[in-house]
Amino acid sequence: MQATAYTYDPDSREGSVLLDDGTPLPFDAAAFDAGGLRLLRAGQRVRIRTEGSGDGRRVVFVTLQTFPDPQS
Prior knowledge:
Layout: E1 2-9, E2 14-19, E3 24-27, H1 29-34, E4 45-51, E5 58-64
Antiparallel strand pairs: 1-2, 1-4, 2-3, 4-5
């Protein structure tokens, strides 16, 4: 799934993405670390993987769109 980086805090390695329908989804440091990134800027297109549904939906993997997802 693709999204757009919305916020990112380099100190905590947490942030959020916007899905293509405009829905914001937060991600934690574990999701950021899983993608092998060192930095993320607002507006970058990213590849994400989510788990759950509804209010329990969460991002578990975030990386750049051009990087592979090892589980796909």
